[in-house]
Amino acid sequence: MQRITAAFTAALVVGGCSEGGPVTPATPSDSAGGTLPLLWALAQAGVTLQDGEGFEVTLSSRECAAQGNTFRVTSPTSSTLTTDGCREAIGTSWSFPGPYTAGTTVDFSLFSGFTNSPGMVRVSGSHPTWTVACEDGGDGDFNDLIFTVRATPNCNTGDPILDDPAVRQQLKNFLQQSGASNNNPAARREFGGYMYEDTNGKVDLRTRSDPQATPCSMSPGGPTPQPGEKVVGVFHTHPFSHRDPLPANCNRPPGAQYDNQARGGGSLADWNFIQTPYQGANLPMYIIDNDEVFRLDASTPPATRGSNPNRFQWNRPDCAW
Length: 321
Ligand SMILES: [Zn+2]
Prior knowledge:
Helices cover 6% and strands 30% of the residues. By secondary structure, it is mainly beta. It folds into two domains: 2-152, Jelly Rolls (Sandwich), CATH 2.60.120; 165-319, no CATH class.
């Protein structure tokens, strides 16, 4: 779980509810429900996730004063989000990236600091966004704490190397260093090297400086592992977006465009490069461009390279690295 504290605090909405009400145990008097449920965990949320999704919970508003309003996720994981909801910053969010399997339901519960009893929770909305409205027993208007729950897409690629946040950051940095957003495409340079895994399983990317590199080519040379390191991949940047015109120093025919579809993200030279084994094994090749990241496997037959399934839109808004 990752807690994200809001950078802002919205103005407190002043109203009725438990504002100024007693914080000692009081007789439950809820106009909406009458009798408060006996079970602590009462909220069957009706929040159902789709395959591979996670979820994010955000405190979107509150109108309460009780001390100790405690809001929890009870399923599919057990987690206390806040133990004093009435003083939690509006906009605070909690992230549960999962991934969870299809049909996973997310349940919530509220312990009311106002009545020292189970609070009441109502869920409305539908995939991918729901509202969880909480009533701590002060007045029954179900606005004491209001959370927004959002299903978050499966942003994993399924490749452990690419699902390592440190590797993602390195790839992004190298793409930037290769001038991928330089307004002068001729000044861009492919940039790349090898991926090294240490004895703890941590993968580090190290580049090789290639003075001969162009916007459309570079040579990574040979790998240079440190003692104990294993070479697990070779990588480079393609500092373009799909269909970008290629500059003259790419030495392509006039009018040539960058095409990351034709060969599944790699050039013929890229696919050829990985046909030569390194220490008895073929290395996968990782390529990042402005749209996608690709993994080229040497075993892919030429005829199916164009439909290479090992590609991921790292830049898409809902999954941006
Ligand atoms: Zn390439």
